[in-house]
Amino acid sequence: MKVIEHIKKAKSTLFSFEILPPLKGKSINSIYESLDPLMDFKPPFIDVTYHREEYVYKKRGDGLLERRSVRKRPGTVGICAAIMNKYQVDTVPHIICGGFNKEETENALIDLDFLGVENVLVLRGDPIKSETYFTAEKGGHRYASDLLTQVKGMNQGIYLDEDLRNSSPTSFCIGVAGYPEKHFESANMKSDIHFLKKKVDAGADYIVTQMFFDNQKYFDFVDLCRENNINIPIIPGLKPISTKKQLTLLPQRFHLNLPNLLVDEVLKCKHDDQVRQVGVDWSKQQVKELIKFGAPCIHFYTMGRSDNVQKIVSNFA
Fold first, then answer.
1. What is the pLDDT of residue 137?
2. What are the tens digits of pLDDT across the range 74-100?
3. What is the per-residue pLDDT for 263?
4. Which of 50, 60, 130, 230 has the most C-beta neighbours closer than 10 Å?
5. What is the pTM of this model?
6. Domains of the chain as residue ranges with CATH
């Protein structure tokens, strides 16, 4: 079932979860161990992230360095199939611009369509560590809006091979990312909303936000979207803070602000077990307010850990 169909059918706020593929060489059991306790809450869908290749330099026998491409977290398509088979739940694979040309994107979408996957989250993706700025693959997409146009075209039976006749259209429900505190590359919030509107006009069905810790940021973002005729569902994304290091890592990695009160409470903690409890309590309050606001679904970024998310959702589901 499509994400927007789940939302339309729901009589109350839904809860969904996002997982990371395991590191290369690890089994899928780590995914199951994380998801098993969360399935009690009957999530309508599970997101599976995609991580593009990185480059490492290996020293050769002659002393020269050899540049090699490695994928540390492979298997998004396979993981989606495994989750659907084990739990009978819909999945949302992330489709990114980086690391793919248009033909590779088309082939991945064909595979997902064959598997019965009906949803995708379309993202540009971040630059890899060896890049200062995002660089599109040769023959690939530079912007998420362009990638979205390709997916939308396939939904209309339009493939790259113009000679194809009577091709079967896909039927993907397309999600895109939204940024309550603006994308870090945008000049300002007005500019960010402009580009979000471009994705909506290109055919996006729903929006999932970047994580935030101040609900007012989400409330203001929704109001701003509605003022600009962005009327599709906007799903808030949450991640409970769990370590003191995240006071630095989260703002640095995700370009967001942490509320003073939350930072003060974390700094009082003597060890990370206490921080995790602070994170759970803070997220519980966020969820309570978001449900009251009428959020259609609350999406948790589990980052491979689900025990704290389980503690939060158990109070509401």
1. 77
2. 678 999 999 999 999 999 999 999 888
3. 98
4. 50
5. 0.92
6. 3-313 (3.20.20.220)
